[in-house]
Amino acid sequence: MSEMSIESAKTPAEAPAPSVVTHKDAPVHGHDNMHIAERAENLKFATWLYLASEVVIFASMIGVFIVFRIQHPEIVFKVHETTNILLVTLNTFLLLTSSWAMVMGLREIRVNNPKGLIRWFGLMCILGTIFVGLQYVEYQELAHHGIALFNQGNEYDGFGMRFYAPTAFHGAHVIIGVLWGLFVINNTRKGNYDSKNYAGIEVFGLYWHFVDVVWVILFTMLYLV
C-alpha cells in the first residue's frame, strides 16, 4: 500500500486537534490598565481628603497667630526686628526649588526614565533636609534672643507658642516628605514604577506641593505681614 493510502486511512482521532483560544488566554492588558487608572484615582481622592484635614489644622494655627498679632502688634514687630529674614528667605527659595525638582522627577518617570527620577528626587530630598537644618539654625538664633516656646512674664510673652507650633508642625511635614521621597527612590530602583504605573509618585507630588504652599503662607503671615 502506498504512503498516500496510509495517510488517508488515519482516523479523525489521529488528526491534530485545532488550536482553541480560550477567554483565559486572551490578552488582559486593557483590564490591567483600567485597574491601574482606577487605583490612581482612588489614591488621589484619599490624598485630597487627607490634605483637606491638614488645611483645617494649619488654618487654625495661622488664625490663632493672626488674632495674637492684632492684640499684641508691638510684640510681633519686636520679633520681626530680631528675625534673620535673609535666612528665612533663602530657606523659602530652597523649598520652592525642591518642589520644582519633584516636578522634573515626575516628568522623567512619565517618559520611562527611572534614573532621571532618582536624580531629581535625590536633589529634592537634599534640599528638604537643608530646609530643616536651616530652620533649626533659625530656632537657635531666636532662642539666643530670648524667644522660647514659653515666654511668660518677659517682653515676648505669648509669642513663642503661636510661632513655634505652626512652623515646627510644618517642619515635621518636611521631614516626613523627605523620608517619603527616599522611599519613592528605593521603589524606583526596584523597578516598581514606569511610564504606565506612577500613581504613588503623583500622590507624593500632591503632598509635597501642599507642604510648599503652606510654607509660602506661613512665610507671608509670620515673617512679612
Topology:
Layout (H helix, E strand, L loop, with lengths): L2 H6 L20 H43 L1 H10 L2 H26 L3 H31 L14 H31 L9 H26 L1
Helix pairs in contact: 2-3, 2-6, 2-7, 4-5, 4-7, 5-6, 6-7
In short, what is this structure?
The chain is built from 7 helices and no strands.
Structure report:
The chain is mainly alpha-helical. Helix content is about 75%, strand content about 0%. The protein contains 7 helices and no strands. It has helices spanning about 5-10, 30-70, 75-80, 85-110, 115-145, 160-190, 200-225. α2 (about 30-70) packs across α3 and α2 (about 30-70) runs parallel beside α7 (about 200-225). The longest helix has about 45 residues, at about 30-70.
CATH fourth-tier homologous superfamily: Cytochrome c oxidase, subunit III, four-helix bundle
What number of domains? 1
CATH uppermost class:
Mainly Alpha
CATH architecture type: Up-down Bundle
- Helicity range: over 70%
What are its keywords?
0% strand; 7 helices; single chain; mainly alpha; Four Helix Bundle (Hemerythrin (Met), subunit A); 225 residues; disordered N terminus
